[in-house]
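Fold it.
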Amino acid sequence: MFRIAEHRADAGAHAFVVRIDREHPGFAGHFPGHPVLPAIGQLVLLDRLLARCDPGHRGIVEVDPVRFQAPVEPGSTLTVAIRLDGDAARFTIHREGRPVARGSLARLREDA
């Protein structure tokens, strides 16, 4: 699916370098001849990264606002920045220095 090549953390800010496998199941059928990882695949990636940032993370409960700006293609290397603020998380995703997605997520936490 994806591999975390690097993770740095500093005072609630997290930075990841993530490699998306060419065989990621999210590419199947989306779209024939020009595969891209759908938005839900990017949200699943963010959910898994949030679990690495905070062991109390139990899931994403709201996605607002989020902008998906560019496609994620097979074999992409992404840079993901996440800033935690209680039950919220702000994120940016870049590929080769160009924006892919950005936004805010509300999340469920164990201690909530």
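The helical segments are 39-53.
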